[in-house]
């Protein structure tokens, strides 16, 4: 009995233990389910915190801007982007138009007005010389024969009417400056035909083609290109010598214009110089100056020059017979006009309210100033200094005159500087010449 009882008790104990284990398994299963649920709901925060697959993708997306913003390993974007903004506002516009606030007249003109269209041509010159033409091959019909290129052993470039008829004034050929690698063509005349003390006139027909396009019949966006004729009264070839006297700078874009200048021979040699060059920083791809039908002869004696029928502008007069007191008075009149125009130019530049009318009056007075023939040998130096003062003033102040002729506008520091320097140089030659004339006249 005892053994049966023990077996019964043992079975009960085993049954009780089995129930407890089943219950524990159920609890464990339930706990596992709860844990899974809890784990599922915690996935976002847990994964984000642990930087597993999903979190790595999320920060990668946020890092994308950081990669573009932090390309210290690729400095090119950062380096190129920082200069570009600084270059864009970098005073390119102010530099091309310094001192924009200073106006010549109350009427403002767009900034491009001084550079896009070519400035007005210089005043019409005096007529062609009188008598025979002293030049050999004046129309380049024999190529470059008798013509030289300053500081070069070459001869002028020649254009043929058969190829470029619009670039030949008459005959079959013309001489041309191409892009101004050779800026001055000259011819020297010497011997018994040149009489010291005689007033000679050098003249030439000139045409300019300045273009950014390839059409040779028209200049597209013409640049700052000009031409002038000079006479050297001792037979030299340098335009910048004190013995060289030059016409005003002209810009006859796509048209022919005759220009001339006078000078009194100091020796038995005299030269004509055909000068082309840039007058400012604006120049396109093609820049060519054509020359044709040059002349050199004695200046005709007349009270007034023949006016240009298509222009109401004043012209340089023909020479009148020399008279010492009249020359001295002419020099004083030119000095006054140049000094007055200089003071007016300074007031323009300093922003004072002025009009162009007064300035144009002074400029025209200089154009009309007298020229003389038969100048005695002891007056030649004085007279030529007077001619230099006149022609130099007209040439260097032509841009101011053109601005006024166009109705006024912005006076750039470049144009002011050129004009003011020209005024100073003219007075530096004219004032000593007046003093020398007074000394010769006795007061």
* CATH architecture term of the largest domain: Sandwich
The averaged pLDDT comes out at 74
C-alpha end-to-end distance: 174 Å
The CATH first-level class of the largest domain comes to Mainly Beta
The CATH topology of the largest domain comes to: Jelly Rolls
The portion of residues forming beta strands comes to: 15-25%
> Which sheet architecture does the biggest sheet show?
5 strands, antiparallel
Helical segment tally?
11
Give a structural overview.
Helices cover 39% and strands 18% of the residues. The chain has 443 residues and is of the alpha+beta class. The chain has 2 domains: 88-117 and 319-443; 124-300, Jelly Rolls (Sandwich). The strands form 3 sheets. It has a 5-stranded antiparallel beta sheet with strand order 1-4-9-6-7. The chain is globular and about 170 Å long.
Secondary structure topology:
Elements: H1 2-41, H2 43-50, H3 53-69, H4 75-81, H5 83-87, H6 92-96, E1 148-149, E2 157-160, E3 173-178, E4 184-190, E5 199-211, E6 225-232, E7 244-246, E8 257-264, E9 269-278, E10 286-298, E11 320-321, H7 324-349, H8 356-367, E12 372-373, H9 380-396, H10 398-405, H11 413-441
Parallel strand pairs: 11-12
Antiparallel strand pairs: 1-4, 2-3, 3-10, 4-9, 5-8, 5-10, 6-7, 6-9
Helix pairs in contact: 2-3, 7-8, 7-9, 7-11, 9-11
Could you provide a short overview of the structure?
The chain is of the alpha+beta class. It is built from 11 helices and 12 strands.
Keywords:
443 residues; alpha+beta; 2 domains; 5-stranded antiparallel β-sheet; 18% strand
């Amino acid at each position: 009995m005892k053994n049966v009882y023990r077996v019964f008790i043992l079975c009960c104990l085993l049954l009780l233990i089995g129930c407890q284990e089943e219950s524990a398994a159920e609890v464990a299963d339930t706990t596992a389910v709860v844990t899974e649920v809890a784990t599922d709901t915690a996935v976002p925060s847990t994964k984000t915190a642990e930087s597993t697959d999903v979190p790595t993708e999320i920060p990668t997306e946020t890092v994308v801007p950081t990669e573009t913003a932090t390309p210290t390993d690729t400095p090119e974007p950062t380096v190129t982007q920082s200069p570009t903004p600084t270059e864009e506002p970098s005073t390119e516009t102010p530099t091309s138009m310094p001192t924009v606030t200073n106006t010549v007249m109350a009427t403002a003109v767009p900034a491009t007005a001084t550079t896009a269209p070519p400035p007005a041509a210089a005043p019409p010159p005096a007529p062609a010389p009188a008598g025979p033409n002293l030049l050999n091959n004046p129309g380049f019909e024999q190529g470059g024969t008798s013509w030289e290129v300053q500081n070069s052993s070459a001869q002028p470039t020649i254009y043929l009417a058969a190829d470029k008829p619009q670039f030949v004034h008459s005959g079959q050929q013309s001489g041309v400056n191409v892009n101004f690698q050779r800026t001055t063509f000259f011819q020297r005349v010497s011997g018994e035909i040149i009489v010291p003390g005689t007033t000679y006139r050098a003249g030439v027909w000139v045409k300019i083609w300045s273009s950014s396009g390839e059409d040779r019949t028209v200049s597209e966006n013409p640049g700052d290109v000009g031409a002038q004729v000079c006479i050297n009264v001792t037979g030299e070839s340098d335009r910048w010598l004190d013995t060289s006297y030059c016409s005003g700078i002209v810009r006859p874009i796509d048209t022919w214009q005759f220009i001339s200048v006078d000078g009194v021979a100091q020796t038995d040699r005299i030269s004509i110089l055909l000068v082309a060059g840039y007058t400012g920083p604006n120049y396109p791809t093609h820049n060519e100056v054509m020359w044709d039908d040059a002349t050199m002869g004695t200046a005709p004696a007349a009270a007034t020059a023949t006016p240009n029928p298509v222009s109401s502008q004043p012209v340089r007069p023909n020479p009148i017979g020399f008279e010492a007191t009249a020359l001295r008075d002419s020099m004083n009149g030119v000095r006054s006009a140049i000094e007055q125009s200089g003071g007016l130019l300074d007031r323009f530049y300093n922003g004072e309210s002025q009009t162009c009318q007064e300035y144009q009056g002074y400029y025209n007075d200089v154009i009309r100033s007298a020229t003389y023939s038969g100048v005695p040998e002891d007056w030649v130096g004085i007279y030529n200094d007077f001619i230099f003062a006149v022609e130099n003033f007209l040439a260097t102040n032509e841009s101011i005159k053109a601005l006024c002729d166009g109705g006024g506008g912005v006076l750039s520091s470049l144009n002011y500087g050129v004009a003011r320097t020209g005024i100073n140089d003219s007075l530096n030659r004219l004032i000593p010449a007046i003093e020398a004339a007074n000394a010769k006249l006795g007061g």
